[in-house]
Amino acid sequence: MQKILTRTPSQLYLGIAVLIFAASNSVTRKIVEIGQNHLIDGRNPISLCNVLFVGNLCALGLMTLIFHRDWKPRTLKALTRNHWISLSITGVLSGAIAPALIFTALEKTSVTNIVLIGRFEPIFTLLLSFLLLGSRFNHWTITGSIISLLGVAATAFLGSSEQTMMIPGVHLGVGDIYVAIAALIAAVSTIMGKLQLQAIPLGIIIIYRNITGTVIFFILANLLYGLHHFMDIFSPFLWQWMLIYAAIIVVAGQLFWLVGLRKSTSTEINFASLLNPILAIMMAYLILGEVPNSAQYVGGFLLLVGVILSFMGNLSQSKRMGDLSTASPIEKIDTPMGFRGI
User: Fold this and answer.
1) pLDDT: is 282 or 330 the higher one?
2) What is the dihedral of CA 251, 54, 223, 107, to 10 degrees?
3) Helix, strand, or coil here: 40?
4) Helix intervals (H) in the chain
5) Staple 175 to which of 105, 148, 202, 271, CB 3.0 to 4.6 Å?
6) Residue-averaged pLDDT of the chain
7) In whole angstroms, what is the distance from residue 301 CA to residue 294 CA?
């Protein structure tokens, strides 16, 4: 098995992972719709909260098997109080609040809108890297980001949504706002990882973030909706579908991504990130039958142009630096990919 993993090109693993991640939003929406047709005393057993909670538990089991060796007593004792505070903050932000916002947005707007507006994340990350880390970017990357921002704005301001919120004379979809906030939170979490968590083993970061996110999400959901909100968590019908969801979206997606990261260059990982939204829109059409509206076509076209320019910028910068694999493990893991099913 090890020989097969070694001989198979890393690009193939990345490609499979990107396809799975691209389908995650649509698959989640589809499974929830199936649950809506099999109510238990008027309740949907496959609620978005149940999917997120059970999905996190499945991901925790997988990550524990992979990274348990990082949890050595000597390593844990070496972590300072500030390290644990930083880990807790990123765990709450990226492990609980951001995914909860995305799952809420799935109830209020189209998957295509979520994908397009979710491209705020790499733009926010780029801006925060410049302001806080002093990172420098070439004109291709900057131009691509500006055009991508225009594409996101076109989607948000020209598109229609079932629920809207007026902000200083402008109607914005509530779901679109949730996605934008989630993208900002994910970007902040990524920058915090670069600033404060480089001295901490990757396995501790991932597992602790998952545990914190799962616990905080469960507490918040109970406070907001009541304990009865999870009363169907042991439903056989829920677990029947969650085993499929977890096996494909959570376990297979994360495994292929982690294996693909081993020998992939920064340019290849960045390209996989840029390709994700295009594939996600295609998956929304194939799985849910979502046909983009005029605003989404405009936004998608601008985003595509921005993606191409940004990739050219990243490729040029990597060649100039003479190094195609400088990203740290946590930077690779946290590459902006949008929703990944957990």
Assistant:
1) 282
2) 80
3) strand
4) 2-7, 10-36, 48-67, 73-78, 81-92, 98-106, 111-117, 120-132, 139-158, 174-196, 202-225, 236-245, 253-261, 266-288, 294-321, 329-333
5) 105
6) 79
7) 11
Q: Which tokens sit at 145?
A: 């980001």
Give the distance from CA 60 to its chain's centroid: 16
Which pLDDT score is estimated for 342? Answer: 58
Q: How far is CA 303 from the centre of its chain?
A: 18
User: In 10 A of CB 35, how many CB atoms?
Assistant: 23
Q: d(Cα 125, Cα 186) in Å, to the nearest integer? A: 8
Place of tokens 């209020």: 108
- At residue 122, what is the residue type? P
Measure the CA–CA gap between 37 and 50, rounded to whole angstroms.
16
The 10s digit of each residue's pLDDT in 284-342 is: 999 998 888 888 888 888 888 887 887 777 777 666 655 444 555 655 665 655 555 55
Distance, in Å, from the CA atom of 48 to the CA atom of 114, rounded to the nearest integer, reads 15
Sole residue written with tokens 């081993």: 262
Tell me the C-alpha distance between 305 and 141, whole Å. Answer: 11
Q: Which of 300, 297, 298 is nearest to 308 (CA)?
A: 300
Q: Which amino acid is at 168?
A: P
**DSSP codes, 124-189:** HHHHHHHHHS-----HHHHHHHHHHHHHHHHHHHHS--SSEEEETTEEEEHHHHHHHHHHHHHHHH
Q: Which amino acid is at 236?
A: P
Is residue 170 over pLDDT 60? no
Tell me how far apart the alpha carbons of residues 211 and 218 are, in angstroms, rounded to a whole number.
Answer: 11
* Dihedral-angle region of residue 41 (phi above 0 means left; psi in -120 to 50 means alpha; beta otherwise): left
